[in-house]
């Protein structure tokens, strides 16, 4: 029997919480009453988490463990979890017990009651130091403005998905932060519910300035993938057209000054600016055209995502007898 619910937990140096996490998740899932599995992905832990996870899997046949050879990041861990999850609904949560397993039923209810494909937790009363909460608020504000998806907490790892919403996701880098944006871009419905959040009891946060920088670059990647993947010329073409137009106007003005008023233009800053803008515009438009050529020449997935399909069940073969009788009668 395949499970209905899969709980996927990326793990990196969280040995002190794993036993309690497994116990609490198991209690909640048994109370839900649906077949389940729990999948841990050890992202190259160095604190003994591997041994603890293996012991848990040895005792509980509903637990699976994937061990990475080294630390590849949370996106890679989630990608592997999504590939191996067999449940119709997939719950993801962090292993540090800041996410409360008792909130799983609330995520499941929101998924069904509001007919959503992804429900993200919202750490409304976040139990983290100011050094994490302020950058997080700024991050969420910027992502909302740039993507148009109105969620309060994009980076919350506590989420519920329908299987079809993640089957086509390709996660790498820091893209796990933008899963709602990627899913929304494929036409799935996203929402969020407030969830409890607890202070960290074990280990230390992996958050840092370097991750913020990586997250910013991946935000640009997400915008490119969701808006311009199939039409790169629309991204580079507009900038190129504006640059080329301003450069052309500058050079046209200088041409008039030279031919009509016989003024020297070779050493004027406007001349160099005009040449620079024309060259920049030409390069941007050429980049967009190259992107279109590459996009058109490679075999990729189609640019659409089918929600549901009712196939033809039977080929209808019309009878030819009425037509034959009518032909005979007219003869």
List the helices and strands and how they pair.
Blueprint: E1 5-11, H1 18-32, E2 36-42, H2 49-59, E3 63-67, H3 74-84, E4 89-92, H4 104-113, E5 118-122, H5 130-147, E6 159-162, H6 163-166, H7 179-185, E7 190-194, H8 209-227, H9 232-259, H10 269-297, H11 321-330
Parallel strand pairs: 1-2, 1-4, 2-3, 5-7
Antiparallel strand pairs: 4-6, 5-6
Helix pairs in contact: 9-10
Give a summary of the structure in a few sentences.
32% of the residues are buried. The protein starts with a strand and ends with a helix. It is built from 11 helices and 7 strands.
Explained architecture:
By secondary structure, this protein is α/β, with parallel strands linked by helices. The chain folds into two domains: 5-227, Spore Coat Polysaccharide Biosynthesis Protein SpsA, Chain A (Alpha-Beta Complex), CATH 3.90.550.10; 232-297. It has helices at 18-32, 49-59, 74-84, 104-113, 130-147, 163-166, 179-185, 209-227, 232-259, 269-297, 321-330; strands spanning 5-11, 36-42, 63-67, 89-92, 118-122, 159-162, 190-194. A seven-stranded mixed sheet has the order 3-2-1-4-6-5-7, with helices on both faces. Helix 1 links the parallel strand 1 and strand 2. Helix 9 (232-259) runs antiparallel to helix 10. The chain is elongated. The protein starts with a strand and ends with a helix.
């Amino acid at each position: 029997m395949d499970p209905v619910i899969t709980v996927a937990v990326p793990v990196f140096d969280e040995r002190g919480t794993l036993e309690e996490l497994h116990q609490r998740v198991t209690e909640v899932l048994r109370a839900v009453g649906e077949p389940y599995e729990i999948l841990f992905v050890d992202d190259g832990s160095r604190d003994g988490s591997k041994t603890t996870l293996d012991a848990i899997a040895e005792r509980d046949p509903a637990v699976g463990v994937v061990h990475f050879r080294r630390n590849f990041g949370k996106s890679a861990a989630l990608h592997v979890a999504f590939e191996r999850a067999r449940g119709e609904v997939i719950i993801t949560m962090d292993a540090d017990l800041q996410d409360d397993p008792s909130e799983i039923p609330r995520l499941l209810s929101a998924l069904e009651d509001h007919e959503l494909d992804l429900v993200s937790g919202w750490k409304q009363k976040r139990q983290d130091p100011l050094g994490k909460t302020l950058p997080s608020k700024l991050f969420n504000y910027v992502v909302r403005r740039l993507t148009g998806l109105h969620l309060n907490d994009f980076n919350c790892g506590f989420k519920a998905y329908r299987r079809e919403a993640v089957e086509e996701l390709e996660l790498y880098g820091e893209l796990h932060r933008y899963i709602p944006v990627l899913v929304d871009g494929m036409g799935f419905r996203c929402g969020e519910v407030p969830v409890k959040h607890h202070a960290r009891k074990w280990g230390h946060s992996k958050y840092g300035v370097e991750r913020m920088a990586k997250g910013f670059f991946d935000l640009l990647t997400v915008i490119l993938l969701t808006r311009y993947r199939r039409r790169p010329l629309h991204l580079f073409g507009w900038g190129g057209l504006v640059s080329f137009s301003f450069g052309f106007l500058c050079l046209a003005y200088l041409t008039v000054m030279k031919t009509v008023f016989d003024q020297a233009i070779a050493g004027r800053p406007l001349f160099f600016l005009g040449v620079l803008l024309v060259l920049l515009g030409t390069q941007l438009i050429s980049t967009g055209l190259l992107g279109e050529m590459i996009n058109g020449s490679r075999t990729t997935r189609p640019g659409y995502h089918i929600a549901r399909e009712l196939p033809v069940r039977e080929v209808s073969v019309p009878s030819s007898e009425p037509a034959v009788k009518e032909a005979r009668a007219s003869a």
